[in-house]
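Appendix B, example 12.
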Amino acid sequence: MQPHTRALIAACAFAVIAGRKVAGIYDHTAGEHLRIAAECRGDRVMAADGERAVTFGGTLPQFYDAGDRAYVTMEVAGTTASGFDHGSAGHYQADVTGPVIQLYDYTAAAWFAYTVQDVAADT
């Protein structure tokens, strides 16, 4: 799975599970802040990847990455989101605890951590 796809999934998982807007995300693996925003309204999720200047989103359980031209599915159970990235043909699982998202990428066989800049926390 591409690093930008993991970050977008993490942001969307937070938006869906926490029910709050994402104003940015910190990728602990890359050690950098990413210009990714996301929000969820009902079952509709919209995200923007400022690094690539593309949109990502759709209606649960399926999102579309306009930059990669690939679909990503997401199912949510409690504080865990899981699904499949059709671009890399790989599964993932994302666990949300507060502003931290731990994402397991089955293709890479590794965990990745992200911290969300939560719009509600900034007000």
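The mean pLDDT is 95. Residues 1 and 89 are 8 Å apart (CA to CA).
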